[in-house]
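Throughout our pipeline, every protein is held as a single compact record rather than as scattered files. The remainder of this section carries one protein's record, kept here as part of the documentation.

===
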Amino acid sequence: MTRISVSVPGKIHLMGEHAVVYGKPALLAAINKRLTVTFEETEKALEFKTEESDSAYIRHAVELVCQNLNKPIPQGLLTVTSEIPIGYHIGSSAAVAVGVVGALYYFFTKKWDLEKINALAYEVEKKMHGNPSGGDNTTVTYGGFILYQKKSETEKVFEKIPLSLPKNLHHFYLIDTGRPKENTGEMVALVKSKVNPPAAGQMSKMKTLFDENEIQTKWLVTALYEADEKALIDAIQKGEQTLEGMGVVSEKVKPLIRDIEKAGGVAKILGGGGVTEGVGFLLCYHKNRNIVEQIISNFHYSMQPITLGEEGVKLETITN
């Protein structure tokens, strides 16, 4: 009996979340937290074994692959184990989609085709987010640093940026502010309500924020290429200000962000953000970890170092 194991990284938005839904570029990176999907062929009807992931979402992914390839639902056990917490805006649903699609696509075709896997995973993601940009699944599929832009539903372009994170910039952390009450789909809908508002002038405000976010995304790419810490901090700080202007940053975490900025670092939301409580993980950059730990202790949060630019989806094991 066939057994296939696939691993997928999580992801972060360095810049461009929300604006990417409206055709602006986003800079994303795969991170060193991974999810593993294992499919074991058996003689029993398909079963799922998962710690946190939504079984209905997994089944949707399975059904979509089978429909696309004109195959019956396979018999077997599909297991999902993950280091990527759900609801924290670091790509858990994209990793599930890519992992399930990758494992079953290989099972049925005996081919490892990243373009096909990514395209099918994007269709799966629509189940979770309604109108996803496609950036999340693209990043966890290809890994590294991705500059992504959805120009239309049929034209999505991305560039895998050929760089490793410069040594002097290895000071990124995730700060856990608590799982947001709002999911990504709800946050995308919140921004959409401001883009298509009854009040005159609101759209011009949002367009200005999207335009500024695009500028900072491009500056951030340059800062990474040139290993320019000052420019990196400046771009992230200005980008975070656009996200606050969009209304996707909870008032609960703004004091923490300001304190980190005053201490010479920077912090921003990741992905959808949040309004009423926490925002999931904040991405923090500061060259002195002790200073950040001292600051977050005042807010009773925890933090962990994170590595950017990790490898994308991998076919780990195949046995027959």
